[in-house]
Specification:
The protein has about 200 residues and is α+β, with helices and mostly antiparallel strands. Helix content is about 20%, strand content about 35%. Helix 1 crosses helix 2.
Length: about 200
């Protein structure tokens, strides 16, 4: 086991990939022989997954900590509702969170909350994690339309910026053309306009 592709957001003692065979870390329900453990601060563990279709996704993971610990799954700039661990720290719980992807990538992960169940960006409660799974649930037109509207707002802001005068040639033409698009409200035209 290793942390390839994952980012540990901050320092906390006894943090890293640990063998489930070591009694300190042994947890029932582990997927394989290793798990992730962070002690004391519950700092965030994240990974960015790119080149994925826009739409609705479900993030699932196995989480464990002390009974009554508060944990959150992370997805892009959002987080799940608080998950309260209901057993001792030797049993994984399969938790899930549904979220939207609007820009072709998802930053997923986990972080410990505080005793009151409040989300803290830098973490609090220690935890163990394993077997993150990201499942594409589908798309609905409102998500593609939201991605288009975000791209349009960004393009309009670039045009209205005082530095816009420095944009010339093909870049200027492409920006103005992208802003002037009036896509039909269907999947293919909205997706094409979003990347214009």
């Amino acid at each position: 086991g290793n942390l390839d592709g994952w980012t540990v957001g901050g320092y906390s003692s006894d943090t890293g990939v640990k063998p489930n065979s070591n009694g300190t870390y042994t947890t029932s329900g582990v997927d394989g022989n290793y798990l992730y453990n962070t002690w004391w601060q519950g700092t965030p563990l994240t990974q960015t997954v790119g080149n994925i279709p826009n739409g609705i996704y479900e993030l699932k993971a196995l989480l464990a900590s002390d009974q009554n610990a508060k944990l959150f799954l992370l997805a892009n700039d959002e987080h799940s509702e608080v998950y309260t661990i209901t057993t001792d720290n030797k049993t994984f719980h399969d938790v899930s969170y549904e979220f939207k992807v609007l820009n072709g990538q998802a930053k997923i992960g986990v972080v410990g909350g505080n005793d009151a169940g409040e989300y803290l960006v830098n973490g609090h409660w220690w935890y163990k994690a394993d077997n993150f799974r990201l499942t594409y649930k589908g798309v609905d037109l409102s998500i593609i339309k939201e991605a288009y509207e975000t791209a349009l707002a960004n393009a309009t802001a670039a045009r209205d910026n005082s530095e816009y005068i420095n944009i010339v040639g093909v870049e200027r033409t492409n920006l103005l053309n992208a802003i002037s698009l009036q896509p039909a409200e269907n999947k293919s035209e909205l997706e094409a306009a979003t990347t214009a």
